[in-house]
Specification:
single chain, 201 residues, alpha/beta, 52% helix
Length: 201
């Protein structure tokens, strides 16, 4: 029986994942957590063969969590999930010790195959993650938009960004709106996360 821990911050998706995996004859979800705060404690206690870990923009450094699990519980394999793979994120996740990478749009069959592969001591890399390394996406932001995003990444308020770049306050706000639209992000934090993961910052 393959013991699995699921870490996903979206309750509905986490519940669906747990139900689907528990339906497999050779798998048992021994615990599920809604964030990374208690994940290490749960993994140490349950000692699962596989942790299915969703990498989200809300995590300050999602890859650091992977590294901690691999260091503290080396027998547990980490299967990292991401809505979108970038060269930077793929390389960082693998360097941190993740043995598998899957996209959040993968089918249940692909996820189950990946978990079984990791439990057997193998690796499982999503084709989309492999493609991301071979053909990195182009930067959709203009040089000026990148300047604004770099300042936003430092956590500077709009007023200070405007002063540093010699721009009007409203102009900076407009740049940020465009950046959010181009990156598909909901807020500045998510835009910075996307930019870092895609290797733009």
């Amino acid at each position: 029986m393959i013991h699995v821990v699921v870490a996903e911050d979206m309750g509905l998706l986490r519940g669906a994942l747990c139900a689907a995996l528990s339906g497999e004859e050779d798998m048992k979800v021994v615990a599920d957590v809604d964030g990374v705060g208690e994940l290490l404690t749960v993994v140490r206690r349950c000692q699962p063969q596989v942790v299915v870990l969703a990498l989200t923009p809300e995590l300050p450094d999602p890859v650091e969590v992977v590294a901690r699990i691999c260091a503290d519980v080396p027998r547990t394999a980490v299967l990292a999930m991401s809505p979108r793979w970038s060269p930077t994120l793929v390389e960082a996740a693998l360097a941190a010790g993740a043995r598998g990478l899957v996209g959040k749009d993968s089918s249940l069959a692909e996820l189950v195959r990946a978990i079984r592969a990791l439990a057997a001591g193998e690796r499982a890399i999503d084709p989309a993650a492999a493609v991301a390394v071979l053909s990195p996406p182009e930067v959709p932001l203009t040089p000026r938009e990148m300047d604004v995003l770099r300042m936003a990444a430092e956590g500077l308020p709009l007023k200070e960004i405007a002063a540093r770049l010699y721009l009007a306050h409203g102009t900076v706000r407009n740049y940020l709106s465009v950046i959010l639209r181009k990156t598909g992000a909901r807020n500045r934090l998510e835009a910075v996360w996307h930019a870092r993961n895609n290797g733009w910052l």
